Amino acid sequence: EFPAGDEGYHTYAEVTTELQKAAANHPDIAVLSSVGKSYEGRELNLIKISDNAAADEGEPEVLFTCNQHAREHLTTEMCLHIVQRFTEGYANDPHIRSMVDGHVIWVVPNVNPDGSEYDISDTDYKYWRKNRRPVEDGKIGTDLNRNWGYKWGCCDGSSTRPASDTYRGPSAFSEPETQAVSRFVDSRAAGGKQRIKAHIDFHTYSELVLWPFGHTQDDTGEGMTAEENARFRDVGQRMAATNQYKAQQSSDLYVTDGDINDWMWGTHKILTFTFEMYPTSPFPGFYPPDEEIVRETTRNDAAVDILISEAR
Ligand code: 0X9
Ligand code: CA
Ligand code: ZN
């Protein structure tokens, strides 16, 4: 349960119920499944939103992922908001209808449900970041956003110490959660073509739009041409103009290796961003009051629409 006063946030069970409701109320355009299970056995829910969602119509696809980091609960609300906006808006909003008709929108609201449930398992938040798989004697958890398999551990952008909050895990994709999401993305590549064209991974906090690469401070080089980099900058800046976030290459914030965006771009050439959501300061930091959920998720509507329009 969320602490008293924050009941407007959704627990993992409540998110699952909302996704089931969305699929039940809009069966033509929403299908609920899972990419696999977390370490503790929770389904990693996956919802597909498209016209004729039961069919495979070959439309360009977009992916939204949330909650890689346990305590970043506002991001789960962001994914849930995306699901509800596109399912509930379909009947009466022509703009939403055209986006849903022309694309496949995939949403994974909880990449790290074990961690987020642990974070709210007591009366006070635990400030937990990693997953919950034990590493060694008393040390628990890998930073899922250092565990992805493109140049994993290459560049001093993650920790080898199991106690660290940025522990990269014993090997690339050592964790069931990163394995499951990456295998799902791999599965969308048919005949050598990746059908997921664009992706946002939501985090908190700092109000930033970040693009790859994270493992190097170079703007261009291996795996990133000047033209590709210019497109990231252009789309990133246009999205940031709608939500008043700051747009920059992710390594301008700090260098990471094994993050989700480096893998999505490095391996699949997916136009991929990290959004660091509200706020900018440590108070309220990871724990904004639930009264701010609607304002701060709606704030990203136009940016989400731009991302979808870039999937073609
Ligand atoms: O460190 C992270 O994983 C992300 N920030 S957070 O505060 N939510 O933990 C940012 C990842 C983006 N990549 C780079 N900065 N290289
Ligand atoms: Ca409240
Ligand atoms: Zn994060």
TrEMBL record:
Active-site residues annotated for this sequence: 276 (proton donor/acceptor)
EC annotation from Swiss-Prot or TrEMBL: 3.4.17.18
Listed Gene3D superfamilies: Zn peptidases
InterPro entries in UniProt: CARBOXYPEPT_ZN_1 (IPR057246), CARBOXYPEPT_ZN_2 (IPR057247), Carboxypeptidase_T (IPR033810), Peptidase_M14 (IPR000834), TAT_signal (IPR006311)
A Pfam family per the record: Peptidase_M14
GO biological process: proteolysis
Keyword Zinc in record: yes
Annotated GO CC locations: extracellular space
Designated name of the protein: Zinc carboxypeptidase
